[in-house]
Predict the 3D structure of the following.
Amino acid sequence: MEANPISHTLPQADASGEPQARKFVLTLSCNERAGIVQAVTTFLFERGFNIEEHQQFDDGLRQTLHLRTAFSGSAEYSPERLEKEFQSVAERFDMKFDFYDETKQRVLVMVSKFGHCLNDLIFRWRGGSLGGDLVLVVSNHETHRAMAEAAGLPFVHIPVTAETKADAEKRLLELVDEYNIDLVVLARYMQVLSDELCRSLEGRAINIHHSFLPGFKGARPYHQAYDRGVKLVGATAHYVTADLDEGPIIEQEVIRVDHSYGPSALSTVGQDAEALALSRAVRWHCQHRVLLDQHSTVVFR
């Protein structure tokens, strides 16, 4: 079982000198069986933990159970220790599981020439509502260097051409390792990632794209939408896979429009939808609220 890098910093002491309770999250998925929730709650109770939030989804069609439990307790515990002690429970029910502490996910944002999603992510990060920490901005253009650096974020320009694509992706993976990145966000990054890179970032890369009914592809999508008289403008945030724009969906946003919206107005509305869907997806991922389920997701909001 793979886990994200975990901080070993213990909680600060409160005014009485006693260490504050350390907070954790457990996520798991397994086939439905009687006794799963009891086994989890008993495990936590026996170690003196207090359950602060519990959500589960019993998928009757697939006969699976998905669970997210947030709990707090002794600072003597770490995610590694919890994983080790929980192993016998997991083996009994054939669970796929992870423990996390309060360490914030480290986020790398990729952007091209459209800056609305990057700007929104920076705003929410600086306001403390993003759920993760932005640590680096990477772009194939210099357009948004000033925006990133004004927010105190390092900006790395990696030009991409057909001849340099492999080297550019190698450099990106080097940055992921160098900055200890947990999540890569494609905030309107207008380059198609190779199958190899998609596999390297599986489950830890999120993309955003416009999604209409119908889904207009290619150049000038908002002009296509205007020509067809769309009544809904939308956006989809999903995990990146080798199948272009077909990864597991995390969040979607839809805004109603009418015949009075020209291409420019549709674009403005579409950018709002993109920013909303992407920020929610990033926050839920960083809070460990998204569980992958084959080609789908379970999202505990």
